[in-house]
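Section 5.1 Outputs to date
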Amino acid sequence: MPQSTIAVTPSAYTYPLLIKQLLHSARATAGEREIVYRDQARYTYRQFFERIGKLANALRTLGIGEGDTVAVMDWDSHRYLEAFFAVPMMGAVLQTVNVRLSPEQILYTLNHAKADIVLVNAEFIPMLAIIREQLETVKQFVLISDDGATMSSFKVPYAGEYEALLAAAPGHYDFPDLDENTRATTFYTTGTTGLPKGVYFSHRQLVLHTLGAAAMLGSAASQGRLHRDDVYMPITPMFHVHAWGLPYVATMLGLKQVYPGRYMPDSLLQLIAAEGVTFSHCVPTILHMLLSSKAGEGVDLSRCKMIIGGAAFPKGLAAAALARGMDVFTGYGMSETCPLLTIAHVREAMPDVDAQAAERIKTGYSLPLVDLRTVDAEMIDAARDGKDSGEIVVRAPWLTQGYLHNPQASEDLWAGGYLHTGDIGVIDPRGMLTVTDRLKDVIKTGGEWVSSLELESIISQHPAVNEVAVIGIKDDKWGERPLAMIVLKADHSATADEIKAHVKHFADEGHISKFAIPEAVRFVESLARTSVGKLNKKAMREQLAG
């Protein structure tokens, strides 16, 4: 039978999915809610909306229009939040610059994205001065200053200082109705091999991700639930996948928001206590720092709900957070997925804290609209029995369509019509995903695949272990054998034999293969990490090879 189409009334508003549409509810109901920046700025949503208009007008005065790229180099701040909205809403592209990259890598990303203007925090002026003469498309700079520094203090020429430009600009801007597929943001992946890859997202994708994340977090009965009375503070950088997209969710819902600037454990804990923060997200490294801080020993964390992602969530760390009363749980995604794909909400009653920790460190249930599979090399689905593993591939309306100016890598990413994550995982009969390893990090030993992530989680439960990373090292007999690199807790000690005996106990009980017992254990002062806090196992392998 022929398909029928919907008749369109000529005067009807078709309602494109644009970032500006996220503001309607908050504008109507949350005008007096606060947005806080450290101990330096505090204003209402009503003022926030006005500042968005001022920023757009200031950028237009500087010649920025539709299709131009506005790069931002700043720590997490109210100004960054303003750029999250004003820049794409005026039809320009927001480039969030990873300020933890090397000057050479930052130069590459600015040139590759063809940035037209850079809003730069004064702290990054020395870095910018190194690369300024090699910038190919950047025409202007806007200074961001926390301490009132003026342009005359620096040798780099500026079009103006951020607050001065906003003060001189009108507060109303007529944000246009764009095509919802207009590119809104660009940022660069932080992989451990090759040059950073540009990832980009449209207005439609960011709006749908916001709605999907809000629906998933709001559908929880209680554990991990985000609601309108929460106080939100990001502890993952705004330059990295839009701080996991949660600032868009928080703004749409009209939550009180707190922006901490540069992450320092003591100041983060102080803000949590002073501002009543109840919802956040971070990588395991940051959670570990918060729990280990002497300044945080008297801070009540029992109201804190926190999504943990970006790296495997060790069971020992989860147990330590639960002991402080925190509601911690895994969120999963990657730069290319905007990022959220799954959330590890606890849906069944758990008998004890150990079972709670084990459930919360799993990868989670899919968000609405996410089609997630585990497959073999021929794209045949693995059984959903919690045992049969495969590569995680995914479709969702907010996944990047490719890498900027890199068609071959884009084709590889989307081989077979699904986005390939490069992660290996299992799905149990409930639909709960558990990532077991990265394809490149799984240890092939004795004819079996040993999960480095599972082994790390087991070792993390030893009472003397502070942090741990496991990598595979070549072995003539077995192909590869696990090597554990361990940072011990202060005032604790352990031997390699004690660590091996700890793992052997789990192997004897059938929780892990006997081939997972490490061949070698090294006690180190620290573990190599990427610019966003993930364990850098490539650097660890290179260090051992050297």
